[in-house]
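Rather than argue in generalities, we reproduce a single protein record, letters for residues, whole numbers for local backbone shapes, just as it appears below:
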Amino acid sequence: MNAVTEAEITLASVKKSYEDFILKEDHPCIMAKTLFKMELYNLNVYRDIDETESLAQLVEDVKRYVAQYDFEGNTFESFLAVFPNNHYRDEESFETALWKALQTIHDLDESAWDPTVSDDPEDPQFSFSVGGKAFYIVGLHPESSRMARRAPFTTLVFNLHHQFEKLREMGTYHAVRNTIRKNDQELQGSINPVLRDHGTDTETKQYSGRQVEEGWKCPFHK
């Protein structure tokens, strides 16, 4: 955990910790840096990733985020769900908590699955859906083996699948992707081995950040 003690945790202190993590450290994601510099992010703090009440609030917050998002424009915005009170000793325990939370989020969400993506977690066309929109989930926590995911707090980042398609439409997807991977290589000496482009393998293997073993099966079910 960072220098902020649990007694001092507030929304303002969490945002400051994240600004330092993204902007003052050598974070490889140029998209994240841009969004934080422009303050184009929606950050929410929740009490407990294992608590249904907290996750029900998260679902409502994501729906509000989707409702205000400009899908016609070229401005991006990210949604971060931060759980400062949840701590994990290793990547496996975090991964278990992540998928348990996503299952609960889906069970609480009454919206139809985004029809532009698959709802089968083994399908390369799968993306997680909340509020009727597809998201690529990025799990972050202090014990991650990947420095880029070693955030100050346990966090689930909800990146709209639409944003990746928009980058492709703008002709900048591959340039952005390659720059991020180059930066990651320079930061840690290697790119994250789980990374794959959408449609080449199921993205569920990427959500927790752990390099999953051969034959790993996603525990999520619709």
Remarks:
- The radius of gyration is 16 Å.
- The chain has six helices and five strands.
- Helices lie at 11-24, 30-37, 52-68, 91-108, 161-170, 173-188.
- The first strand starts at residue 41 and ends at 45.
